[in-house]
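Record format v2
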Amino acid sequence: MTDAVLEVRNLKVAFPCAGGIIRAVEGIDLVTRKGECVALVGESGCGKSVTAFSIMRLLRTPPSVSRIDSLRLDGREFSHLTEREMEHIRGKDMAMIFQDAMTALNPVMTVGKQIDEVYRRHTHLGKKEAREQTVRALELVGVPEARSRADSFPHELSGGMRQRVLIALAFACMPKLIIADEPTTSLDVTIQAQVLDVLKSMQREHDVSALLITHDLSVVANMADTVYVMYSGKIVERAAVQDLFEDPRHPYSQGLLASVPRLSDEKQAFVQIPDTVPHPMRKPSGCYFHPRCSYATESCRERMPRLEAMPEDRQVRCWNPLGQEREA
Amino acid sequence: MSTSGDTPNERLLEMENVSVNFPVKRAYPFSRRRWIQAVTDVSLEISQGETFGIVGESGCGKSTLANAMIGMVRPTGGTVRFQGEDLYTLRPKAFKEARRNMQMIFQDPFSSLNPRFTVCDIIKEPLLIRGGASEDEMKARVLELLKLVGLDEEDLLRHPSDFSGGQRQRIGIARAIILNPRFLVCDEPVSGLDVSVHAQIMNLLMEIQAELNLTYVFISHNLAVVKNVCQNMLVMYLGKVMEAGDSKTVFANPLHPYTRALLSAILDVNVDRTRERVLLQGDTPSPIDPPEGCRFWQRCPFAMVGCETIPATLVSVEDGHQVACHLISGFSPEQKAAGLDQPATSQ
């Protein structure tokens, strides 16, 4: 693929600890194309945030141990870069939007100063020019009275404004890739709609690829082009967003989609997936999802299926992928 | 404990013009005393056996309202009547008795369970406080409930840290219903949980309701859930009721601009990007010294001059549907003459 911006091959992350090894990410491949928004969906503990952090190389080693075959950004291999060299890439070529703006921002520094820093670090701008850029960046994400707001401290801003500041911070140097880790989870619905709107228009307008980490399928439906569904450290399905929502092939994706209550529904019982996510140290044999899967067979209990390519450029990790005929 | 001859329409809880204000700590000894108006002038009626939904964003006063219902926060004004008796004028003994019938399920299953207690201790505690039961009786009752909420006997001596979020919420539910309450407040019971266990907990709550004939107050910011489980509902914004009524009617015909914005802001799981969304500008203002007129006017896309100064009152628009909005209730001819129905231009 020539237009791939981010290419991850066989990423594995583990955390050795007292009782054994937690295999958080077990060999995943990810590709995002130019201008594309790729969503990584899964429940808590499935390894989606660990994936994001290890792509940014923000995981501390130890305790984490990671291995990766290849990590390319815009065709350039950087899995072997030193921490020093990574510092030049983070914030400039790829940047991250964190979940909780209150802890991601420095509480004793004005937000303007924090964005200035990005420009001062990665470009040759002087103090004054950097501030000009900062004000522009804040205006782009819809912060009213950006010039005076740049002198506020994070605690003086509302949740939605703080999240906008984080977006401005990430987009400051117009990176090639933005990783957004649950960017709106802590926000109210009406504010969430505003922030997603900003994020989407920034991403579209500047043709930046995005990797969106979330557990919220409704956010995925509204933002993503391609979706990777993750379960217990493995990708179980990859598909274009439309295909996944209309015709999920993996029983887990199907269950997730069915369990979201919809406004259009008439009153009914909630569709539930039985049981819970397996403990990361006690993953079941065979397919990790088989104890919760209503279609499980003997082979599911014994062997882990491979991520097989399917027609329409999608992949499914299942022995008995749901058929072409649509499930009720 | 609960009386058996309940008719389905019996009023279980009534609130009349309830307001709850909290004082703000003074900045200086003689500065003006300021109040957070968490809940302002809310009236509602909840019948036996129904599920009543309260919807709103964070800080709109929905949890404070629920706390006022079950006697955890004394309202600054108005009355709360539970089973026909004014809750806050009851003598301490009767108050305790009444509160036994009202319990709560909390949002965060991590902080609402004592980490040093075993599951058995946690679920048993209400019985201990009530007293009058032997150790064996209590144990038997705990086991019965454990089974009801889908946990095992062997979980009895484990600690909350051994359980997942969903299981902890089950423990919280068992603790809430052990005294056979009639009235249960569920304060965002699933928002702290994983998507795939949402449905499990919701179904469990519905089963328990059917089995024990409970009345629920269901607090949520998720309109889809409210639509699915509630018969009646109210939409709150900054401490005031914006729209209330039969949930079927409200969802079929949302009239208040805020309800509409809320409905359009929730992202549905449909990959339909053509849908026009009403995006609200700005943030929820602070409940300290809230706007004088309609609480919503600063963010309302249809705000008129009069909205700024004249509070909107709830008016009935159809059977089982009330709205507090000047767009619906209109202005009087004199007010119109003064130009109050002109679009506000301050935005």
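The two ends of chain B are 56 Å apart (CA to CA).
Chain B has eleven helices and twelve strands.
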